[in-house]
């Protein structure tokens, strides 16, 4: 026969406590029974401990607290020193992040420069393990804008050549001089 895990050998008549039941509180020593309630934060209340950072006298029947070694902060209050609050230190700089942002901006304004900066940023971010999203976005946008510029230049040159071809053809038919044909003025030399 096995005994339950919470079997009390000093009181075998008492049934085992159900799982999860909280054991009763230990008896209160007589000195602690006469200690008044915890001090209030109200300065007018009796037992007010004073503002934070000032020493609080130890409770009756307890020795005063030892100061924390190496801590030069506020006077000892009987509690251990709190760790320093987390600061707002800047995040460590990741090599290539600034280039990635510059590449993204230049991808809209001067696309070939944006492509070059984004490629350099992508290489640096690969080496440092940083996030490559901005560099990739700058690279893609730079390539798309460059392609759009190339297509625009080709269309412009084609239209200009077509118009110039029409002018040359008309001038070869009309000869030198200034001519008005269907409301369009041609100056041929």
From TrEMBL:
Segments for region (Disordered): 1-77
Alphabetically ordered keywords of this record: Membrane, Transmembrane, Transmembrane helix
Biased composition annotated in UniProt, kind: Pro residues: 21-30, 57-67
Membrane-crossing segments per the record: 99-123, 135-164
Biased composition regions of type Low complexity, renumbered to the chain: 31-56, 68-77
Name of the molecule in the record: DUF4190 domain-containing protein
Species of provenance: Microbacterium keratanolyticum
